[in-house]
């Protein structure tokens, strides 16, 4: 195990805080290799007031995961500014209220797995103590559970765990890279939510799921409901699971 990674339980405490008063402020926002989850993208594109398609085109790159075989979205960084996050400013994060889950959890790292027998999520938090970070010298002390609550991480974990279920299904039922059609389905329903929504109501792509009118009405105005439906559709289209 990396010496900088310290396992913690929810009740364990750690010393850390971050603000513009800390000398290393914004240092963790450069030299990035930042993956974005579907829920990260949902929150960011809504914060910026743009469609998912435009957000993906302007701020992200896509590649295929070498182990999962699934499309992975990463944040484009600024080569001329030490590979900095496009949303960081001299005064801090410009999308702070809707920052990605990995930024939100830092300096914690959540490791989660799903039991094949029970389906229960098993989680472990690790404290990542990077040498450059001076936040660990600050006075604030909190438990892991308090940090998770204060940083608004729970909803991110819930949505990300739904994606983990799909990854687990794929690893068992369809290892290897997806074909072009399956890759399109996964990318649209996970990442390009606005396109997914238009396909629902203009092309009837979910007609075979026999959804009730209440569900369809909900997803018209609720991106979280739309993402949950998209993940459900992926399980059905790619793995035959309802």
Give a quick precis of the structure:
The protein is of the alpha+beta class.
Could you explain the architecture of this structure?
The protein is an alpha+beta fold. It folds into two domains: 5-152, no CATH class; 162-239, no CATH class. It contains nine helices and ten strands. It has helices spanning 38-48, 52-59, 101-105, 144-150, 154-173, 180-190, 193-203, 213-221, 223-239; strands spanning 5-8, 13-15, 35-36, 60-64, 71-75, 88-89, 92-93, 108-114, 121-128, 141-143. It has a three-stranded antiparallel beta sheet with strand order 1-9-8. It has a three-stranded antiparallel beta sheet with strand order 3-5-4. A hairpin with a 6-residue loop joins β4 (60-64) and β5 (71-75). The mean pLDDT is 92.
Give the overall silhouette.
globular
What is the average of the pLDDT values?
92
SSE string, helices as H and strands as E? EEEHHEEEEHEEEHHHHHH
As a whole number of angstroms, the C-alpha radius of gyration is 19 Å
- Please tally the β strands and state the result: 10
Q: Which spans of ≥5 residues are poorly predicted at pLDDT below 50?
A: none
């Amino acid at each position: 195990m990396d010496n900088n990674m310290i396992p913690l339980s929810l009740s364990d405490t750690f010393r850390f805080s971050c603000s513009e008063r800390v000398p290393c402020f914004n240092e963790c926002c450069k030299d990035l290799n930042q993956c974005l989850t579907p829920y990260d993208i949902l929150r960011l594109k809504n914060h910026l007031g743009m469609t998912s398609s435009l957000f993906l085109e302007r701020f992200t790159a896509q590649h295929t995961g070498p182990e999962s075989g699934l499309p992975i979205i990463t944040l484009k960084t600024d080569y001329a500014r030490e590979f900095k996050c496009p949303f960081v400013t001299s005064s801090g994060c410009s999308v702070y209220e809707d920052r990605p889950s990995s930024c939100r959890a830092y300096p914690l790292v959540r490791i989660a797995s799903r039991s094949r027998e029970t389906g229960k999520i098993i989680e472990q938090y690790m404290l990542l103590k990077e040498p450059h970070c001076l936040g660990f010298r600050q006075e604030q002390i909190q438990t892991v559970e308090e940090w998770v609550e204060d940083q608004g991480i729970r909803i991110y974990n819930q949505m990300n765990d739904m994606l983990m279920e799909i990854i687990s299904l794929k690893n068992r039922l369809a290892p290897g890279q997806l074909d072009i059609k399956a890759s399109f389905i996964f990318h649209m329903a996970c990442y390009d939510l606005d396109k997914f929504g238009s396909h629902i109501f203009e092309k009837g792509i979910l007609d075979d799921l026999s959804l009730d009118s209440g569900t369809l009405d909900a997803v018209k105005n609720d991106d979280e409901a739309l993402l949950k439906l998209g993940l459900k559709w992926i399980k059905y289209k790619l793995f035959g699971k309802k």
